């Protein structure tokens, strides 16, 4: 986690966010829309009541994601045959 000084050697196991990154994330999503604008959006585009959980993107998590995607593709191909 390079944003910290000194950087962390490992990602904490529990859900944890760097204080600087969490503050930046809050300010970037501060754009508000009116209720009228919100009701005209498709339900998938409407703002959620609670924030989405951010997951750290580490080399390990990227390997896991790649393995999951490969397995899904393999299963989809097998099911299609």
TrEMBL record:
Q: Where is this region: Disordered?
A: 27-81
Q: Which PANTHER family match?
A: PHD AND RING FINGER DOMAIN-CONTAINING PROTEIN 1
Q: Which organism is it from?
A: Cirrhinus mrigala
Task: Please list every transmembrane segment annotated in the UniProt record, as residue ranges.
Answer: none
Q: Under what name is this protein listed?
A: Uncharacterized protein
Instruction: State the superkingdom.
Output: Eukaryota
Show the ranges annotated as biased composition (Low complexity).
39-57
InterPro entries to which the protein is assigned, alphabetical: PHRF1/Atg35, Znf_FYVE_PHD, Znf_RING/FYVE/PHD
